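Section handout, structural biology tutorial.
Before the tutorial, make sure you can parse a SMILES string by hand: atoms, branches in parentheses, ring closures as digits. In the record below the ligand is 2-oxoglutaric acid, and the chain has 337 residues. In the tutorial you will relate the predicted structure tokens back to the input. Do not try to memorize them.
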Amino acid sequence: MTVPTSTPSKPTLDGVELYVNDGLLRPDEVAPLHPSSPSEPVEQLYKRYAADGYLFLRGLIPREDVLDARKSYFSALEPTLFLEPNLPVVDGIFNSSSSRDDFPGIGSGQLDLDPGSPAARFVDAAVKSHTDSWYIGSKEEGITGFCNHPAILEFVARFTGWAENTLTVRRTLLRNNTPGNHAIGVHYDQIYMRYGEPTSVTVWVPIGDVKLEGGGLIYLEEGYKIGERMEKEFNKKARADGMSEDEVRNAFNANMLSSGVLSEEPREFANTHGKKWLVAAYEAGDVVLHGAHTIHASTVNHDPEGCIRLATDLRFVDSSKPWDTRWDKDFEIGDGV
Ligand SMILES: O=C(O)CCC(=O)C(=O)O
Ligand SMILES: [Fe+2]
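Predicted structure of the complex:
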């Protein structure tokens, strides 16, 4: 399928325009993400996850716990002039008199920063949050940390059946999508975790409400089938070309760009594969679980109030099986994982 060249002008869904890095999505290019409830029988939820490649769970985490995390994050970043003054910190409204170039989102692509610039200072502060006790926890202070929220861990342990072998991978990405900035391109997570089995589960956690046009994650309809096929083809070809096991695991293959993503153009990608993007408005407390081959991307944040889209992705593995231990560390810019 080819992408039409004329600019579509109709709202995408529910009267709202949804943008990805390569433009406005047309109404026939999207469909709603199917919501589930944590109170449904776990076998039913697992069947749905296996069939769709994702599980969108409404209200898994108490809303107030998510909003506390949001407040902690923005309080730490307030001195960088990230936020509109005189509004509640928890709202996370981007400072309208700041330049968005000084506040590049982390975790949505390559960053080219001048040391000492406001952008570099902002990124340093955002990276530091990954080791703050409100986020990662602290034994000395007796703090569990948002990453280790029992509602998430207990659900994943029960859902996967990994029970006490359920391990929260240390490296997580706390991503702050400022209004109008670049959104993450099309990818599946196994690309970055090839030193482990493709059984990891990612839990994408919006930290705050995210309006439909507020830059939420989007999933390619039946995308895991395409991701599985791509990974199989890549492995076959890499071996035929004589790549060593290590090279195979490290390689960013011909399907991918240097950052590892499959494409920076979600619209074009979905059209090429004849699939829709599945979209949602998220509320604080919702999460989406997705598998290692599930193809996803993000919309560009066009929140009308300038609300910053904050989210984290937590990865879970079965610690009794081989997993990608390169991820057993805190996130750093350019850590090559
Ligand atoms: O939050 C984002 O923009 C990307 C998240 C993601 O790729 C993931 O959770 O695996
Ligand atoms: Fe991802």
